[in-house]
Amino acid sequence: MIYSMTGFGNAQTNYLGTTISVEIRSVNHRFSEITARLPRLISSFEQQIRDIVKNQIERGKINISVSFSRNEETGVKSQINETLALSYYKMLENLNKKLGIDEKIKIEHILSFPDVIVMPETSDEEQQNLVNEVCKVVEEATKRFKRMRFEEGEQLAKDLISRIKLLNSNLDKIEKIAKNMSRETYEILLARVSNLVKDPSVLSQERLELEVALLADKSDVTEEITRFRSHNKMFLETLENSTSPGRRINFILQEMFREANTIGSKSIKSEIAHLVVNLKEEVERIREQVQNVE
Asked: Last residue of a domain, which of 98, 118, 138?
């Protein structure tokens, strides 16, 4: 079972006239890197909120965004942080002058900055209750986030399985071509050496045939094909059974590439050389795909 490292999940709830909205997004990353963008009112609880996601996601660059919006029909009015709003206004004004921009600064520009609109002051108990509600919404958003990553992972797994089948098909072709390759290699090498020597009588025919036979035997790729198939099997088992297969899969792919290189270096047939190129290209495509696997 694999999870994609890209995903999105959101959730929201209404709490005492305030809509709490949470969005979680992620992209590829070798490790787990979590950042959170929170309203100032609950910024001191960032670690608690991050841990909810961290405990369920092992890899990926993840961003958590929490926002509050007041429901005017409740009769509880939002407050504006006038000092902060004025600071943002002056900042934009100075930036306009430096860049030579004549556009007027509008109220929507100011309101787009974080924490300009704030909730009324709350007691410690009210703040803790609010954080508890936020955590519930983060939990729900995380569930949806994981569900999307799982669904994308399922589609990715189907593609990877089809690519492993293609690798096995190419190995079958190589095995068929290489079946009598040792004998053919022996005959080719023997003929080449004989052509290079003008006077065959200076050579010990028995010794020559022994050396050529040893070289021909070294061209046998049966062992490499067997190991490659074993790696393919291990790859599929890891996809199905591992809870976090990304690193293990990358190791298996390295071994596949090693076997493909060895097969290529031991073969003298052009047909096998072409198939080895196909093997290596397919392994590289798989490697690119699994960069998105948790």
From this structure: 118
